[in-house]
Fold this sequence. Notes:
The complex is a heterodimer.
Chain A: H1 7-15, H2 17-50, H3 52-55, E1 58-60, E2 63-64, H4 65-107
Antiparallel strand pairs in A: 1-2
Helix pairs in contact in A: 2-4
Chain B: H1 3-27, H2 32-37, H3 44-55, H4 58-71, H5 74-100, H6 105-109, H7 115-149, H8 154-205, H9 210-221, H10 240-257, H11 262-265, H12 274-305, H13 308-314, H14 321-334, H15 336-378, H16 385-410, H17 417-439, H18 445-464, H19 491-507, H20 514-526
Helix pairs in contact in B: 1-8, 1-15, 3-8, 3-12, 4-5, 4-12, 5-10, 5-12, 5-20, 7-8, 7-15, 7-16, 7-17, 7-18, 8-12, 8-14, 8-15, 8-16, 9-12, 10-17, 10-19, 12-14, 14-15, 15-16, 17-18, 17-19, 18-19
Amino acid sequence: xxxxxxxxxxxxxxxSEQFQELRxxxxxxxxxxxxxxxxxxxxxxxxxxxxRGFMGTKLLGEINVALVFGVLQFVSTFLIAWAYSRHAxxxxxxxxxxxxxxxxxxxx
Amino acid sequence: xxxxxxxxxxxxxxxxxxxxITFWASRNTKTAxxxxxxxxxxxxxxxxxxxxxxxxxxxxxxxxxxxxxxSGYDGFLYSIGFLVAxxxxxxxxxxxxxxxxxxxxxxxxxxxxxxxxxxTAAGVSTIVVSIFYLLAQxxxxxxxxxxxxxxxxxxxxxxxxxxxGLLMVIYxxxxxxxxxxxxxxxxxxxxxxxxxxxxxxxxxxxxxxxxTLLGDAAQQSGKGDAFLNAGLKYGTEAQGIxxxxxxxxxxxxxxxxxxxxxxxxIRFYTVPTAKDxxxxxxxxxxxIGVFYLLTLVLGFGAAAVVGSEKIAAANAxxxxxxxxxxxxxxxxxxxxxxxxxxxxxxxxxxFATILAVVAGLTLASSSSFAHDLYAxxxxxxxxxxxxEVRVARIAAFVIGAIAIxxxxxxxxLNVAFLVALAFAVAASxxxxxxxxxxxxxxxxxxxxxxxxxxGLVSALVLVIFSPxxxxxxxxMFPDVDFHLIPLSNPGVFSxxxxxxxxxxxxxxxxxxxxxxxxxxxxxxLTGVGMEKAAxx
Lengths: 108, 536
């Protein structure tokens, strides 16, 4: 660990336009998505508690809304995870790597 | 051959194999980074498997299959919360923690705070959460192994608990994170293979028609269509509005608790970079998601093939539904010998499951004791790596002994609520502290300490005065009644309290360090100065 705790380097980097761009790319994706999947999950839990008539509606044979809704939670989880990894690889990693190299140059 | 004999042989093979790996791992465990974080040399895929092995406890394998087999759909609600929770870890926690921390959860919290109070709080919370979880697992292990191996005597169950405790301590003390991780990887592969095999056989029996399976399950359960909908176990209509609030409270704690569980958080440190941490959570989500879909088939399959009545007769909580299903479906397809073999395999998988999880918990709590409390609070950082690791090993012994000593008398009590309580404490105390640390500029020492103690204490107090502890037939102490709150799950109150305490603690303290925030923000997002993998 040769990185020195030179705080001015970090403050300078934090204030830079490039870092603000990285922060914006990360937060503007992760925060709304977190709100969205939590709301979607909460809707499912609340319906399971308070809308059992609706959840019990049979769609296909014995398969009812509750089961489909539950499986959709799995599907949305897989899709969001996949979408995040794509977003991170395309928009976050290259910029993060570049900024890390810049800071390391100054601190080592 | 009886299934007990075969199961014991298979289990001993697992123990022998994992002990060999543990001793092999110990040869490469020299530094603190090796002991606490496996040298940060695991690949994303390996760590993804280990995440699955660390997370999928006997409670989720046997417990959820059992809940589904007895109460139908409600078990599925549990698994959905357990899975969706991983998105919180993926999007907000895993990579940023890997970039800014070192060995424990407290490393991230103490980064820009006054280290001693914050590490004390985080260490206490880590040890409390891990011991609750550990206790629930060990008590479950005693009952389960007894059932599967036909050990019915009290002394037999006590010895089972002691054996499980000794094995987990050996894995952790000798193998450290490396040994523990390999035990978890082997277990994850065994668990997925076993569950997939039984699932395929069940689906095959029903002509791969899920609707037929569900119809038969509903019929055999004796509960009809209600079996395929929520409400037979959690938030039943008879419990009224509080029952439903309790259900929502459980749901919230499950989804927010995972990313605050110390034994899960330390897994992110075992890979070389944040990208690998992301990759491992992706793999973890895949494995855990598929596993819970398999459990759905296992649970409904057990109801359809074995019948709820027979399952409840073997174990009131339904914990033996999956092994009973394995025996029935094996016998159905391959004859009696097939049933015996499949039952033995699933029983061995269940032991492996318990061992891998308790080892992870012992490691998390002993690491936090040595790294946070001993090295940074008692010794103020004036210790060598060697001393710290020695203390971690001693702590693992002591925690193992405490867990054994508590689990033996707790056997006769209903402690199943301890897992939900561990999730509630993690969601109410740890998660607010972690999220505020990573994302809130103004956050400070008073805020971190208030969030952790506020969340921890409110969750504990609410549970002590809940029907989970007294005043209900299913309570830990069914014969007394001092319950004040009609909720068994505290999350719906304690989680907002934790976040609020963190907020208030922060704004009432003047402490504020802009340059340290700049450092953690830059480091967490770019990976500057992150702890590197060990070179061997």
